[in-house]
């Protein structure tokens, strides 16, 4: 284990024991040949002769910064393969030393935006079967997100139903934040209907070098702008889902906003409520103030942790979210902006608030106590 990892583990071991549910861990294949056991002969030929047709992002290691290939920590490379590809290293470096009770896998392989709809569907099924065999059946602490071809809702619905029946270890349905249309549009409603049917939340995760700019005014020059501006994509998606009436139409649906920050949430609620008071005639389908839908149906993860110069300002934000969308802990392992549980929060955060963020909130959101044990599927 690298020296930095040993030091991280020692720090965590010295803290009082608190249950930790990590809502954002990244696993990845080393290449398309890893999926050959789960692909038909037709799609194996496609993988060998054509391959990916869509934004590559983490699949090809293109995500910035360039000195952190696959957006990963320097100490997270296994002896062979890519960061996030080794369950053994994940156990040794992350699950065991940090005492992770449950970890939610969010595989960022770009299934959703593939341009060939047939390949997107085959890729989603193979990725999900690979997660079951190589991760869920080998490590009882892990849960996973269902990858779907979300730009093709009819195919996505089929995969949601199939994967949810296949293994109890799947706890949410994954989108990446930069979709072709805002997520409140009717195009995506069949997916929300299927999610409600199988009783799983939707997870919306940071990322994708897609066809739309991350800002509302065009493409930025620098990765620093891109990374900072990703919060805009999350806010736009939240506003779309709330104001289009997604939660009125699908009242059982819940959504986790993963790796999009959280300090913006109070001001977005205030802004939407204020405008709704004056412009609500346009949205008669909303029976409640926009903030009420966020509070009831949405959760946010802590990583990337907001770090104001004055730590007490973070306490103010946490207080504002006390009655808002629930906040859930995430590390983003093995990525370069990983948040260690012993260093993510200033010491002034009350212990009861820590317990809620680290365990109580994610346990309720993902209904971990109510779901059958994944071991029953093995």
How would you describe this structure to a colleague?
With 378 residues, the protein is α/β, with parallel strands linked by helices. It has one domain (22-366): Alpha-Beta Barrel (TIM Barrel), CATH 3.20.20. The protein has helices at 3-13, 41-49, 87-98, 117-136, 153-166, 189-198, 223-243, 246-249, 265-279, 290-297, 311-320, 351-365, and strands at residues 20-25, 100-105, 142-147, 170-176, 202-205, 255-258, 298-301, 326-328. It has an eight-stranded parallel sheet with strand order 1-2-3-4-5-6-7-8. α1 (3-13) runs parallel beside α3, α4 packs parallel to α5 (153-166) and α5 (153-166) runs parallel beside α6. The two termini are 30 Å apart.
Strand content bin:
5-15%
Q: Can you tell me the CATH superfamily?
A: Metal-dependent hydrolases
In CATH, the architecture is Alpha-Beta Barrel
The Cα radius of gyration reads: 20 Å
Characterize the overall form.
globular
Biggest sheet, open or closed, and with what strands and sense?
8 strands, parallel
Q: Strand order within the widest sheet?
A: 1-2-3-4-5-6-7-8
**Poorly predicted spans:** 1-16, 57-62
Please identify the top-level CATH class: Alpha Beta
CATH topology annotation:
TIM Barrel
Summarize the amount of helix as a percent range.
Answer: 25-40%
Mean pLDDT: 89
Q: Tell me the number of helical segments per DSSP (H or I, 4 or more residues long).
A: 12
In terms of quaternary structure, what is this? single chain
State the secondary-structure class: alpha/beta
Q: How far apart lie the N and C ends?
A: 30 Å
Counted up, domains total 1
């Amino acid at each position: 284990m690298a020296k930095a990892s040993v030091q991280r583990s020692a720090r965590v071991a010295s803290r009082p024991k608190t249950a930790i549910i990590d809502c954002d861990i990244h696993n990845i294949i080393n290449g398309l040949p890893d999926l050959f056991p789960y692909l038909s002969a037709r799609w194996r030929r496609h993988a060998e002769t054509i391959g990916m047709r869509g934004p590559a992002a983490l699949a090809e290691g293109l995500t910035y910064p360039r000195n952190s290939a696959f957006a990963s920590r320097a100490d997270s490379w296994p002896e062979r393969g890519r960061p996030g590809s080794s369950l053994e290293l994940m156990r040794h470096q992350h699950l065991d030393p940090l005492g992770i009770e449950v970890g939610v896998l969010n595989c960022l392989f770009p299934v959703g935006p593939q341009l060939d709809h047939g390949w997107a569907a085959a890729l989603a099924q193979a990725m999900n079967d690979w997660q079951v065999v190589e991760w869920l059946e080998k490590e009882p602490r892990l849960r996973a997100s269902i990858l779907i071809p979300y730009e093709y809702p009819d195919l996505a619905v089929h995969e949601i139903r199939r994967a949810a029946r296949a293994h109890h270890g799947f706890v949410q349905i994954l989108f990446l934040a930069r979709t072709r249309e805002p997520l409140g549009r009717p195009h995506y409603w069949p997916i929300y209907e299927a999610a409600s049917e199988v009783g799983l939340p939707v997870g919306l995760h940071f990322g994708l070098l897609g066809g739309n700019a991350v800002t509302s005014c065009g493409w930025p020059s620098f990765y620093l702008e891109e990374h900072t501006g990703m919060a805009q994509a999350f806010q736009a998606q939240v506003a779309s889902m709330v104001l289009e009436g997604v939660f009125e139409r699908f009242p059982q649906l819940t959504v986790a906003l993963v790796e999009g920050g959280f300090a913006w949430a109070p001001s977005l609620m205030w802004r939407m409520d204020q405008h709704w008071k004056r412009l609500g005639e346009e949205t008669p389908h909303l029976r409640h103030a926009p903030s009420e839908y966020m509070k009831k149906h949405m959760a946010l993860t802590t990583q990337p942790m907001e770090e104001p110069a004055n730590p007490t300002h973070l306490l103010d934000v946490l207080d504002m979210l006390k009655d808002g969308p629930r906040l859930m802990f995430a590390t983003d392992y093995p990525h370069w902006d990983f948040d260690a549980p012993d260093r993510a929060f200033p010491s002034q955060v009350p212990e009861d608030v820590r317990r809620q963020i680290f365990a109580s909130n994610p346990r309720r959101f993902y209904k971990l106590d109510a779901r059958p044990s994944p071991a029953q599927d093995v």
